[in-house]
């Protein structure tokens, strides 16, 4: 859920050198497990379907943990706690939607996408859009939108990996980028999504364990949440107000973008195709929500806890808010716990990168050729080739200006949300939606997001407090989708195939 | 049960009884979704005014967000022949929790201080938001989803209907109605190749 802003926020962090023997040892152990899983998965990847949607599918528990893993990035461990430290509880509006987003996704998308996969052997999100509207154009346009978002995400994830690996091993940022991307590439190209999923399971478990242990440690060290709150209230009561230091509009805007926008995040939505038995969806939202809550415990506890520890003088004042987690780990917690969290951060960035590499490869080798009425002959071979190319391009881009790379990462979440939510999430549940409406909505989201983010980046334009390009683009995309579909409503019945209609009516 | 033809589906939609109820639910959900998003849009637009964000703008988001989220969930949960059934209670509860949580945060006076009474470790307004908006729905929606899954979301019969239709479509695609070379090409094609007449 918060992978979108995660990497770009992580890039702002100058992580301290954590290369202590225990941290390095746990880091090496982590990479060894990733390697072992990848070799196992590579032996089981024989077809394009294995490569892109894990062949015959994944069991419930594995898929749930993997989905939690890709929904959270390094932001939950580093940037997020720093954000709470800086603005108080207002930063919680980024993660509060987790209470509803998973079950909302299950009702709105999971069943219909999984059944569409059953009916048509679909493997990508643009596939679903193409099938829903009987439109190669809509499939191609949504593929382009996702690809644009992935370009930004991949560069920022590569840089974030470099930052974390440099912190753990002290190898320098450039080598950190190549090592991180090299390992991710090794398992992405050899074992495809299967390697990705099982590495995600390992990485997600690592994140959850690290998060729970840090949460318990902070509560114990601070004398309980009540004591922590008392310390903060004595010095800075605004921090624990319902909006923190944000304006109500800004906090609510976060809630809107990160709740509704979750329905358009391809790294999470794509997973619906992979569940082996559609009837196992029954427990998916509950398990995923519980998993997310565990992983996000660190986000809340470190942000609030470190604030109290600094105010009470138990921790030195931070050089910058983003140092909240590193300062706690390297000065207060046992070193093994610190090692676990640093590996958890590496895991978070690698799992997100792997997921985006796989989706990007599917778009280039599958969706774009289909949009032009062609089909790649050997999708598996081309999938592996494109995977390598995307990873290398991302690593090279990540070596460029940090500001530029951070900019690329900023618009990812909003771009996916504004281009995909109306056309996919509403479109799969409303037979009155039309092809023209969907394409107009995707184009609106793409153009407005890119135009506003670029204008803001170049300082040509600035938003009022609380308003973001992502939010404006998503709202505009929704309104265009409804209005254009209504204006072209006569074409709606002809745009539904019987099997798609059945899936929409069930 | 057999698969309804498109015409039958349309007839179902125009019928009275459960199908009509589902249609009404869907229509209401679409209207609520549009209204919720429109309210959020007006809230944002107001922030661009020369005098800054008016006090009422956050209220539009505080009401529009629960409306939009509730509506899209209802839209997703509505089934062809029935509305949302017993799910209307958890949906109403969660929409209400969001409205109350955001509304309380906006309306209650800021009284946080060293002597504030704490609720589960947090001052009152923060506790309402963190526990009411961020935690309570977890114990309601996913459990409601699981408990109503077979009746309201997906049953083994539903899956079998889709698989049966997929088999029928596959057979239709494999029918030798074209010259041999074209038949081989057709057999090699995936269903998704055929969706697109543009």
CATH T-level topology of the domain at 16-149 and 189-400 in chain A: Sodium/glucose cotransporter
* Average residue pLDDT of chain B: 82
Q: Please trace the helix and strand order of chain B, writing H or E for each element.
A: HHHHEEHHHHH
Q: What structural class do you assign from the helix and strand content of chain A? A: mainly alpha
Chains forming the largest contact: A-B, 92 and 90 residues
The amount of helix of chain A comes to over 70%
The SS-based structural class of chain B is: mainly alpha
| Biggest sheet descriptor of chain B | 2 strands, antiparallel
Q: Provide a count of the helices of chain B.
A: 9
Count of individual beta strands of chain A: 0
Count, helices of chain A: 21
Distance between the termini of chain B: 33 Å
- The CATH architecture classification of the domain at 16-149 and 189-400 in chain A is Up-down Bundle
- Coarse shape of chain B: elongated
Beta content of chain A comes to: under 5%
CATH class value of the domain at 16-149 and 189-400 in chain A: Mainly Alpha
Please summarize the sheet with the most strands of chain A: none
CATH superfamily of the domain at 16-149 and 189-400 in chain A: Sodium/glucose cotransporter
Describe the overall structure:
The complex is a heterodimer of chains A (506) and B (198). Chain A contains 21 helices and no strands. Chain A has helices at residues 3-11, 21-42, 48-53, 60-71, 79-87, 98-120, 125-133, 136-169, 173-222, 225-235, 248-260, 266-269, 284-311, 324-331, 335-371, 379-398, 402-410, 412-426, 435-457, 469-487, 498-505. The longest helix of chain A is centred in the middle third of the chain and has 50 residues, at 173-222. Chain B is mostly helical. Chain B folds into two domains: 6-154, no CATH class; 155-192. Chain B contains nine helices and two strands; from the N terminus they run ααααββααααα. In chain B, strands 1-2 form a two-stranded antiparallel ribbon. Residues 1-16 and 180-198 of chain B have low confidence and may be disordered. At the A-B interface, helix 6, helix 7, helix 8, helix 10 and helix 11 of A face helix 1, helix 2, helix 3, helix 4 and strand 2 of B.
């Amino acid at each position: 859920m918060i992978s979108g802003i995660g990497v770009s926020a992580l890039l702002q962090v100058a992580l301290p050198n954590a290369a202590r023997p225990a941290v390095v040892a746990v880091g090496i152990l982590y990479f060894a497990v990733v390697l072992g899983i990848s070799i196992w998965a590579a032996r089981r990847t024989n077809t394009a379907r294995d490569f892109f949607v894990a062949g015959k599918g994944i069991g419930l528990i594995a898929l749930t943990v993997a989905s939690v893993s890709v929904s959270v990035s390094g932001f939950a461990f580093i940037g997020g706690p720093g954000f709470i430290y800086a603005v108080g509880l207002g930063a919680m509006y980024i993660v509060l939607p987790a209470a509803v987003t998973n079950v909302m996704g299950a009702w709105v998308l999971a069943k219909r996408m999984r059944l569409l996969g059953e009916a048509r052997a679909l493997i990508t999100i643009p596939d679903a859009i193409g099938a829903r509207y009987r439109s190669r154009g809509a499939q191609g346009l949504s593929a382009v939108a996702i690809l644009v978002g992935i370009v930004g995400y991949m560069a920022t994830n590569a840089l974030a990996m470099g930052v974390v690996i440099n912190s753990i091993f002290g190898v320098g940022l450039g080598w950190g980028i190549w090592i991180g991307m090299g390992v991710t590439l090794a398992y992405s190209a050899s074992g495809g999504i299967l390697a990705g999923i099982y590495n995600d399971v390992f990485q997600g478990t690592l994140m959850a364990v690290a998060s729970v242990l840090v949460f318990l440690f902070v509560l114990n060290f601070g004398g309980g949440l009540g004591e922590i709150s008392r310390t903060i209230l004595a010095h800075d009561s605004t921090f624990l107000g319902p909006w923190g230091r944000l304006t109500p509009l800004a906090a609510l805007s976060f809630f809107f973008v990160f709740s509704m926008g979750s329905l358009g995040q391809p790294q999470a939505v794509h997973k619906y195709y992979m569940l082996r038995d559609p009837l196992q969806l029954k427990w998916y939202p509950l398990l995923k929500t519980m998993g997310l809550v565990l992983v996000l415990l660190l986000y809340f506890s470190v942000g609030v806890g470190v604030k109290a520890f600094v105010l009470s003088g138990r921790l030195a004042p931070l050089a910058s808010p983003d140092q909240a987690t590193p300062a706690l780990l390297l000065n207060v917690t046992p070193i093994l716990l610190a090692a676990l969290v640093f590996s958890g951060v590496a895991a978070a960035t690698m799992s997100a990168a792997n997921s985006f590499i796989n989706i990007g490869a599917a778009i280039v080798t599958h969706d774009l050729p289909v949009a032009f009425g062609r089909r790649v002959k050997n999708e598996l071979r081309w999938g592996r080739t494109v995977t390598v190319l995307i990873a290398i391009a991302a690593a090279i881009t990540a070596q460029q200006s940090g500001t530029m790379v951070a900019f690329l990462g900023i618009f990812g979440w909003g771009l996916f949300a504004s281009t995909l939510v109306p056309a996919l999430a509403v479109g799969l549940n409303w037979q009155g939606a039309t092809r023209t409406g969907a394409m107009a909505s995707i184009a609106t989201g793409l153009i407005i997001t890119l135009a506003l983010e670029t204008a803001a980046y170049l300082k040509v334009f600035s938003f009022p407090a609380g308003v973001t390009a992502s939010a404006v683009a998503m709202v505009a995309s929704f309104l265009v989708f409804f209005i254009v579909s209504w204006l072209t409503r006569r074409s709606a019945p002809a745009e539904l195939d019987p099997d798609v209609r059945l899936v929409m009516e069930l | 049960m057999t698969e309804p033809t498109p015409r039958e589906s349309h007839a179902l939609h125009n019928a009275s009884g459960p199908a009509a109820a589902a249609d009404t639910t869907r229509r209401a959900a679409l209207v609520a979704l549009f209204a919720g998003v429109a309210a959020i849009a007006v809230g944002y637009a107001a922030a661009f005014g020369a005098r800054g964000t008016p006090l009422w703008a956050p209220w539009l988001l505080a009401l529009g967000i629960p409306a939009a989220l509730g509506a899209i969930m209802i839209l997703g949960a509505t089934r062809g022949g029935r509305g949302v059934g017993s799910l209307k209670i958890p949906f109403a509860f969660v929409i209400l929790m969001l409205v109350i949580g955001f509304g309380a945060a906006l309306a209650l006076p800021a009284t946080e201080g060293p002597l504030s009474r704490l609720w589960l470790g947090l001052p009152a307004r923060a506790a309402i938001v963190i526990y009411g908006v961020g935690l309570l729905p977890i114990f309601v929606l996913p459990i409601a989803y699981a408990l109503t899954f077979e009746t309201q979301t997906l049953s083994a019969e539903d899956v079998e209907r889709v698989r049966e239709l997929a088999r029928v479509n596959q057979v239709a695609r494999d029918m030798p109605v074209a010259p041999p070379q074209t038949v081989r090409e057709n057999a090699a094609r995936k269903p998704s190749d055929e969706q697109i007449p543009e």
